[in-house]
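Quick one - first record:
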Amino acid sequence: MGELVIKEVLTRKDRHDFIYLPDKVHKNEPEWLPPIYMDERELYNKKKNKSYQYADALLLLAYRDKKPVGRIMGIINNRYNAINNEQHGRFCFMECYNDKEVFHALLTRVEEWAKQKGMTRIIGPLGFSDKDPQGFQIEGFEYPQIMTAATNSPYMPELIVAEGYEKKVDLVNYLAKMPDEFPLIYEKVLSRVANNKEYKIIEFLSKKELKPYIIPVLELMNKTFAEIYGFVPLNDKEKKEFAARYLPILDPKFIKVVEVDRELIGFAIGMPDVSPGIKAANGKLLPFGIFKILRESKRSKKLLMMLGGVLKEYRGKGIDVIMGVKILQSGIKHKMDKIDSHLVLEDNIKMRGEYERVGGTVIKKFRIYQKEL
């Protein structure tokens, strides 16, 4: 076995090796879901990703015999640390073969880097914000992988525990059948909210109708997600970037918002699961991958519930229920038969209760780890 070399990612070739290493690591795993590589190139580009303006980052590659065998990213999110009065470093986007030496060497380098910068604890896997894949998957490997969630091999949690890391928090993923009819309590809430003329429920048929709402929705997300672990508010430039990146793949039919006196107070975003399309395209949009993804969007039978939020003063009034039911009604109309919760924090009892109310069961679990430095 050749000498192990850890190298910082500095050149365009280094970045190419970093981005495409997971494809090599997972080549014998038929269910592995690649990322969208166009997004990956922007994510790791300091000139294009505005997150680097408030976060320190270190990208490392491990080589044996001049071949890449592992990677890791270290992050110090200065904005999050300042908001939450913490001195925490992060590691994320970690990939390697089942090799303890490589795993240890990469993680140790990031720990040393974070310690040198005055950090007292390291958390991960956790990226710039909770919009990046979080944690290592620890349960449910028999189920298909889903977009924007961790896609690690089963040995990664074993390797991190061997490094002295402990659980920080878990996230769960529910799967449910699309209901033929809604629970009676939902019918009562729907009736009550529908009769309250104060609330205006807005649905969309086209991206042209949706476009003016994207930035206001992101501004509302900043307000409603403030208490969620790992969330970092988007600044104005990031809102525009986020809107430009996701508008092309959003399906307006699965986005619902609620207004009071023309003020946005709630939003819910679902989307067809296009993971099989991404897999068929091997993560490449060009030249023809985008058509495979769009085709999957039209024929997908699984609805992913991605994001949602309601202003604090309007919570407990059924706003979230009516938006959720409206999205499910759109799913039923388009002959979808499954609901996927995406990732829900384990202590989000209210949200978990809603998925269990419609018959959802936990099929996957993801874990974020921590270690004192």
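second record:
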Amino acid sequence: MYTLYYLPNACSLATQVVLHELNQEVEIIDKQKVENFTAINPVGSVPVLVDNNRTLREGVAILLYLLDKHQNTMLPVTGTAREQTIQDMMFANATMHPAYGRLFFIAQNLSDEKIKQSAFEVAAQAIDSLWQVVEQQLEKQKFFGGDQPSAADILLTVYSRWGASFPVDIELGAKTQKMVDAVMLMPSFQRALAAEEYHSAA
């Protein structure tokens, strides 16, 4: 069984969804309930995955480890298809994720409400432009990663939920919204949400 350290509604949710897609058992632990989490991950971020005596950090590195270890259809074994899949995952994690991260930074570090709102709007415009990239890719396929949900789709869907926490309007195209809705309805996604809710209430 894997152990996954998470934060509710954070990007660690995607790791849990992928674990369920791979039919792997996982124990999830809220990092806020760990007395000295920096002993597990010095930078303090989630996800952190423990596999027996191995501790893995960084979201996409963890996903690649899992997808290489367990048989699946989300990550091709070789060739240009594999390269494209990794590129899609990195777009989600290294481009879209930091764009949303600016909203969290603004909320935590700016006190002047007028300046804060202006900064929120600028950040939201940058996020909108990235979702337009997703919309363009969806012109030729049902999901960002192809004809079926990929790890990139799962990552993007997790991030798409964050905008509701801020006083901005982030626009998803019609095809993007359809993709997000489809991923959120996946049994693995619903199971992960329910697990986080259960542990938060415990």
